[in-house]
Give the backbone structure.
Amino acid sequence: DAGITQSPRHKVTETGTPVTLRCHQTENHRYMYWYRQDPGHGLRLIHYSYGVKDTDKGEVSDGYSVSRSKTEDFLLTLESATSSQTSVYFCAISSTASQPQHFGDGTRLSIL
Amino acid sequence: SQQGEEDPQALSIQEGENATMNCSYKTSINNLQWYRQNSGRGLVHLILIRSNEREKHSGRLRVTLDTSKKSSSLLITASRAADTASYFCATDDNTDKLIFGTGTRLQVFP
């Protein structure tokens, strides 16, 4: 498996609280992605990064922010969690935009 | 807005049978990729086919691409119980992003 670690793997929190998910890679890949996966929607891109401090929005970016201060770490923050953000979140990496992506095992986030 | 749509949504077969799943997409692409997801795990890349290719093989997997119809198919031959998973197509339209379909759930019975 590609060296991708997501933390935490599971989290339960309350509406209105801030939440930060971490993706850590040991592959030195340039591209990192955050997706959410919900029944009936497949994977939807939240934000992605094409280098340190270079990020862009995806399809479902509202309510989420990201930061990438080092090549190996990509953080996803929910500033004020809402129940609609209950989901499974996946991080992925790739060496270039056209190469296959390698995925972490996900973070299951429940917002009550 | 989903670029890729898989068909069928779910498929149940016996071990040894072939499984075919289809993907349709909307715009021009650079390449199309297929991924597998086992329950509770992340997606795993299976195969990539470029827009100028029509067919590609990898072990028991065969992928075809018809850019005139904006469609692709994934064939798994001689299926095994271990092939039970969800399968997703994803399109690369040269925008730094992959767009994933909603997936096909494959169940292979022993």
Notes: The CA atoms of residues 61 and 83 of chain B lie 11 Å apart. Chain B is about 0% helix and 55% strand. Chain B touches chain A at residues 1-2, 30-31, 33, 40-45, 48, 88, 92, 94-103 (CB under 8 Å). The radius of gyration of chain B is 13 Å.
